[in-house]
Amino acid sequence: MLPIYKYWQVPYHLAGCKMYDVLAGKENMETSYVMSKGKALKTYPALKSDRLVSTVVYDDGQHNDSQMNIALIMSAVKHGTVAANSCEVTRLNKDGNGKLNDARVKDTLTAHIRGIINTAGPFSDALLTLDNPSHKHIVRPSSIIHITLPNHYSPRKMGLLDPATSDGRMLEEVRSYLSTNVKVRRGDALSAWSGLRPLVRNPGAASTEDLVRNYMIHVSDSRLLTIAGGKWMTYRGMAEETVGVATKAFGLDNRVKSGYVTETLRLVGTHGWSRNMFIGLIQTYGLETEVAKHLSESYRDRAWTLFDTSVSLYVPFSFPFLLYLMVTVLPRHRTEVRYAVRHEYTLTVIDVLARRAYLFFLKALAALEVFPRVVDIMADEFN
Ligand SMILES: Cc1cc2nc3c(=O)[nH]c(=O)nc-3n(C[C@H](O)[C@H](O)[C@H](O)COP(=O)(O)OP(=O)(O)OC[C@H]3O[C@@H](n4cnc5c(N)ncnc54)[C@H](O)[C@@H]3O)c2cc1C
């Protein structure tokens, strides 16, 4: 919901949202609409009524980028990729013609390669420096900060969008939109984190200042292919273009048998999944509805493997005793830890709690609470 405080802004913001609707085409979820002040205050009672004239409501998508990333890696592995976690490229070696032919990966692997694709995001320059210490730096990292607030501040499935965020203090900003009888306290924040987004410039461009609008692909003289920048929205296009450039740069054209499959490739987990799959999980394993929905949404049809993992090997009890919530407020299941170790390249507790189960990003205290239990399960897995 976009709260609006000046009448002229109603058509302005509605037109902007309608443009989104049009650009989304048949992928659009719901059409955006104006919600009157009275209805908005009924729907969103915590909203401040002072000076409010109207609101515009539009639908936005949300995804679990940790699990999306893992599904992408597992899909690549299914199609022949070899993946490794926590392997840092520390040296690039070249043949007599100055072309890259070998990478030293800390600390156990030396990979003999046809080509190297640098996808190090905000750290892309580190690899470019290994290739050519005097290269022009391409990344200008931009820091983004998120805080998570409890869901009693807004109605279910609705949030507030501030179209003109200032660089001010975030909690102050939230307070300015909510009724004065809603006290937004610092201690209410469930988690806070900061990350680096790689804004990039093309090393081939004449000006060193201009940032590219979206992403850039560059092949160095020694054939280090760098892809940097971009958004989740365009990842398939970026991947397909990169593979196209790579096959040419690395002399692999003859290995392309029948064009590219990237655009329509289905990720692992999607083949046997339906929106009702969670009901099957409830019926088979007696799960709480919220847990079953979480597992179905996050792992798709891989959720069945999650239980194969624990039932067959580690949980001596049969239904219903294997049911066990790691955290009561957020639906998480202990089988997710074993599954992460066995199937999702997990090596550390932080891998599990932040990059697989997503707990640190949603509720930091819950993550700390289950920390010792996760350590125990991982210790058991790793002997
Ligand atoms: C807080 C935040 C919010 C964002 N929100 C959105 C959003 O809403 N929508 C959206 O589309 N985008 C969003 N982005 C941007 C998006 O997440 C990034 O564009 C994307 O993560 C960049 O992907 P990447 O693969 O290029 O880099 P990364 O995801 O940063 O991955 C780089 C990888 O390279 C590894 N690496 C680094 N150096 C080496 C080395 N020497 N050897 C081996 N590996 C190495 C790193 O460990 C890392 O795993 C957001 C970014 C941040 C930080």
Brief account:
36% of the residues lie in helices and 18% in strands. The protein has 383 residues and is of the alpha+beta class.
3D structure, described in words:
- The protein has helices at 9-24, 37-43, 65-78, 124-131, 170-177, 235-249, 277-285, 289-299, 303-313, 335-343, 349-356, 359-362, 364-381; strands spanning 2-4, 33-36, 54-57, 88-94, 100-106, 109-112, 116-118, 139-148, 191-200, 215-219, 224-229, 325-327, 332-333.
- By secondary structure, the protein is an alpha+beta fold.
- The chain has 3 domains: 2-61 and 150-188; 80-141 and 195-255, no CATH class; 277-381, no CATH class.
- A 3-stranded antiparallel sheet has the order 1-3-2. Strands 4-5-6 form a 3-stranded antiparallel sheet. A 3-stranded mixed sheet has the order 7-11-10, sandwiched between helices.
- The relative contact order is 0.10.
- Residues 311-328 have low confidence and may be disordered.
- Bound molecules: flavin-adenine dinucleotide.
- Residues 88-89, 119-123, 126-127, 144, 146, 195-198, 228, 230-233 line the site of flavin-adenine dinucleotide.
Biggest sheet strand order reads 1-3-2
Low-confidence stretches: 311-328
Cα gyration radius (Å):
24 Å
- Identify the overall geometry: globular
Mean pLDDT: 86
Give, in order, the helices and strands.
EHEHEHEEEEHEHEEEHHHHEEHHHH
Give the oligomer, counting copies of the same chain as homo and different chains as hetero. Answer: single chain
Structural class: alpha+beta
Helix content: 25-40%
| Cα separation of the termini | 50 Å
* Largest β sheet strand count, sense and barrel closure: 3 strands, antiparallel
Q: Helix count, per DSSP?
A: 13
Task: Please give the domain count.
Answer: 3
- Content of β-strand: 15-25%
Distinct small-molecule ligands in the complex: flavin-adenine dinucleotide
The count of strands amounts to: 13
